[in-house]
């Protein structure tokens, strides 16, 4: 059994495909449960964020949980064809899957290198898998090690210094391109989840003093507004708020755009062609892409932040080698530990098997020795001689087994020893 990952991210797929393949927070628990029902012996941790959807699963010796099985399962969840899924998803297994997870958790694979949000998202994905029972021994070991690796990167490098998230790039680099100041600008936040809250923090730090929060669950909007001393309105006031807005931020999990070009066209007269900056940080997208056709609208979606993110990547390049060394060390350490864990039971059974043979022979031999007048000291010497014989016979195969374990069981010696000595599973 080994770890495998199938997924996609902003690196290799467009936002429209990520929208189709993403799982909302409400969908994740039921998906984990269905996976467990479909593959009772399998393990799954499902990571789905704005920028990536990744399924970390275990393979099975009988091939029932291979790449094709996971692809079919994933396609079925979204009513897509397996061919469409496999054509745009990346597959990694074994060492590559483990190192990829460590890289993701350490925020070296993020759109904004060093953002703090991804590690908490990885932890949440693992916690949900634990709660639903879809995590298991291998995913427990791997995700706990991923957390440790990410913590080392945080503490031993400067790659997370002045950590930058997607909202901070949007507020810190995009907003100043349109407005000299946010003071007196009417800001509308759509969505009261983590992304909305994080964006709000940066907006207030940037000087925003006229912020209104809307959310379909109005009580969440009220709660967030009270935390930051902002205003809140019910969701049905959305279009009225758009008329007044200078800056609108989309962070909802709505399946369809909350603001279409047709809707905005009807509001143009009331807005009197005032400039509107629209920051769409949601996946699926909150704002119709056709809004960018209006001369008075500056629309930025998550994929539009790539240039700013690339600048941040260059600034942190000098820290990459050190961070990657840490990830490589932690990956090697985990794989070595997992490989040796796999050999431990086999070594134990082999030694027990040899000891049982020794005891059987002593039971047969010692009575005959005593009948011939053998001394107790002689019995002890015979037993020691048998122990030495066992150790000498077992030393070469066990040394080879340990060496094979350190190399990832490439030679298959564990399986060979099980079959040769009939040690069972």
UniProtKB/TrEMBL annotation:
Pfam family, one: Shikimate_DH
Catalysed reaction, written as an equation: (S)-4-amino-5-oxopentanoate + tRNA(Glu) + NADP(+) = L-glutamyl-tRNA(Glu) + NADPH + H(+)
Positions of the Tetrapyrrole biosynthesis glutamyl-tRNA reductase dimerisation domain: 322-423
Active site: 50 (nucleophile)
Described function: Catalyzes the NADPH-dependent reduction of glutamyl-tRNA(Glu) to glutamate 1-semialdehyde (GSA).
Domain notes: Possesses an unusual extended V-shaped dimeric structure with each monomer consisting of three distinct domains arranged along a curved 'spinal' alpha-helix. The N-terminal catalytic domain specifically recognizes the glutamate moiety of the substrate. The second domain is the NADPH-binding domain, and the third C-terminal domain is responsible for dimerization.
Name of the molecule in the record: Glutamyl-tRNA reductase
Organism: Stieleria bergensis
């Amino acid at each position: 059994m080994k770890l495998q990952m199938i997924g996609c991210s902003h690196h290799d797929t467009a936002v429209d495909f990520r929208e189709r393949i993403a799982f909302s927070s409400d969908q994740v628990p039921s998906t984990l449960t269905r996976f467990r029902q479909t593959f009772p012996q399998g393990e799954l941790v499902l990571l789905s964020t704005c920028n990536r959807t990744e399924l970390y699963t275990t393979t099975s010796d009988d091939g029932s949980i291979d790449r094709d099985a996971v692809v079919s399962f994933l396609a079925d969840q979204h009513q897509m064809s397996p061919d469409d899924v496999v054509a745009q998803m990346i597959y990694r297994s074994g060492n590559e899957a483990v190192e990829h997870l460590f890289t993701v958790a350490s925020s070296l694979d993020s759109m904004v290198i060093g953002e703090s949000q991804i590690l908490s998202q990885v932890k949440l994905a693992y916690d949900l898998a634990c709660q639903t029972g879809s995590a298991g021994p291998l995913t427990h070991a791997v995700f706990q090690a991923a957390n440790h690796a990410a913590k080392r990167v945080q503490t031993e490098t400067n790659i997370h210094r002045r950590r930058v998230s997607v909202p901070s790039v949007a507020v810190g680099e995009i907003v100043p391109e349109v407005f000299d100041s946010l003071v007196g600008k009417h800001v509308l936040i759509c969505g009261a989840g983590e992304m909305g809250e994080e964006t709000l923090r940066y907006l207030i730090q940037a000087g925003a003093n006229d912020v209104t929060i809307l959310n379909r669950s109005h009580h969440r909007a009220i709660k967030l507004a009270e935390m930051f001393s902002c205003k809140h309105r019910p969701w049905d006031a959305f279009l009225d708020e758009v008329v007044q807005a200078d800056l609108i931020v989309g962070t909802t999990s709505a399946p369809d755009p909350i603001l279409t070009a047709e809707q905005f066209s009807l509001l143009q007269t009331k807005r009197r062609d005032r400039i509107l900056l629209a920051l769409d940080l949601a996946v699926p997208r909150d704002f119709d892409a056709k809004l960018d056709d209006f001369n008075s609208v500056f629309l930025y979606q998550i994929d539009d932040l790539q240039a700013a993110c690339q600048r941040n990547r260059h600034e942190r390049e000098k820290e990459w080698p050190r961070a990657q060394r840490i990830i490589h060390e932690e990956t090697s350490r985990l794989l070595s530990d997992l490989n040796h864990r796999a050999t431990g039971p086999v070594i134990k059974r082999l030694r027990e098997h040899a000891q049982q043979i020794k005891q059987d022979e002593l039971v047969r031999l010692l009575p005959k020795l005593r009948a011939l007048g053998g001394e107790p000291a002689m019995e002890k010497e015979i037993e020691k001689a048998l122990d030495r014989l066992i150790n000498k016979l077992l030393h070469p195969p066990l040394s080879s087994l340990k060496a094979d374990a350190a190399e990832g069981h490439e030679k298959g010696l564990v399986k060979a020893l099980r079959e040769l000595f009939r040690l069972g599973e």
